[in-house]
């Protein structure tokens, strides 16, 4: 994996937004996979600023959602569809027609999972997938011990993940759904470029295990080591447990600027 250590979350957001903008300039109809939560917000803020300034035209880009809660009613403000519309699609000046995600309200959830995988394939595959990482090393909602070959499917959230996400539900864990639809690790690995952003000391152990540890289903994000083009962007706090931090700094500093991420 390419590891880039940045001073803070804002710098990480700017760097990834520049990579997305560069991709869209080369390929206007690029398919961007997005993640939710607080970590990627600096990316979306920086990218929307580029749109407002005229630095990039996102009008033909397509947005695909990584995961979705099961059982929240349509339009619920904390559904990931609502979140992506609010934080990504609308600020980038896109229409809802450019956006697709798994259907967490479907009566047949398994069929909805299969339909989502087919839709990704029919759209030509994800060009750049933005990922976050959980404190236990999960990506998407692929919790520890998820199959590294898994496809989009329904998953049961661990208690820790529900605790982590309770802040979005008035700190009331009882409001946090127990199940989600998520792209599987096998599905995620089919994207042409994977970019994982992690910030804060709470993510330091997960980052170190994912980057420097063995590839293991116990640390789902470690599967990114198998990908031919995976970039991990971390701030100083999230990088604090990396044994090879100085090597990563030197490697990125020596990389030609024109190569980008």
TrEMBL record:
Keywords: Allosteric enzyme, Carbohydrate metabolism, Hydrolase. CDD domains: GlcN6P_deaminase. HAMAP family: GlcN6P_deamin (MF_01241). Residues 10-225 form the Glucosamine/galactosamine-6-phosphate isomerase domain. It is an enzyme of class 3 (hydrolase). Transmembrane segments: none annotated. Catalyzes the reversible isomerization-deamination of glucosamine 6-phosphate (GlcN6P) to form fructose 6-phosphate (Fru6P) and ammonium ion. Its EC number is 3.5.99.6. The gene is nagB. Pathway: Amino-sugar metabolism; N-acetylneuraminate degradation; D-fructose 6-phosphate from N-acetylneuraminate: step 5/5. The active site is at residues 67, 136, 138, 143. The record marks 146, 153, 155-156 as: Part of the allosteric site. Allosterically activated by N-acetylglucosamine 6-phosphate (GlcNAc6P). This is Glucosamine-6-phosphate deaminase. It comes from the Bacteria. The lineage of its organism: Bacteria, Bacillati, Actinomycetota, Actinomycetes, Kitasatosporales. The keyword Hydrolase applies. Pfam families: Glucosamine_iso.
């Amino acid at each position: 994996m390419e590891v880039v250590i940045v001073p803070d979350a804002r710098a990480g957001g700017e760097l990834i937004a520049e990579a997305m903008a560069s991709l869209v300039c080369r390929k206007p109809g690029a398919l961007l996979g997005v993640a939710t939560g607080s970590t990627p917000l600096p990316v979306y803020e920086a990218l929307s600023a580029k749109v407002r300034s005229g630095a990039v035209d996102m009008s033909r880009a397509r947005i695909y959602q990584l995961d979705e809660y099961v059982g929240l009613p349509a339009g619920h403000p904390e559904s990931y569809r609502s979140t992506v519309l609010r934080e990504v699609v609308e600020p980038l000046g896109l229409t809802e027609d450019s956006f697709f995600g798994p259907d967490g309200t479907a009566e047949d959830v398994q069929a909805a999972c299969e339909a989502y995988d087919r839709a990704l394939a029919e759209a030509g595959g994800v060009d750049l997938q933005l990922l976050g990482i959980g404190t236990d090393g999960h990506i998407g909602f692929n919790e520890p011990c998820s199959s590294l070959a898994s496809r989009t499917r329904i998953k049961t959230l661990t208690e820790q993940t529900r605790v982590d996400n309770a802040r979005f539900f008035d700190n009331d864990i009882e409001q946090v759904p127990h199940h989600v639809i998520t792209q599987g690790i096998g599905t995620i690995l089919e994207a042409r470029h994977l970019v994982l952003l992690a910030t804060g000391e709470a993510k330091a152990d997960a980052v170190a295990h994912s980057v420097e540890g063995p590839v293991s289903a116990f640390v789902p994000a470690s599967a990114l080591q198998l990908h031919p083009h995976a970039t991990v962007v971390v701030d100083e706090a999230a990088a604090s447990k990396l044994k090879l931090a100085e090597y990563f700094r030197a490697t990125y500093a020596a990389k030609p600027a024109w190569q980008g991420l």
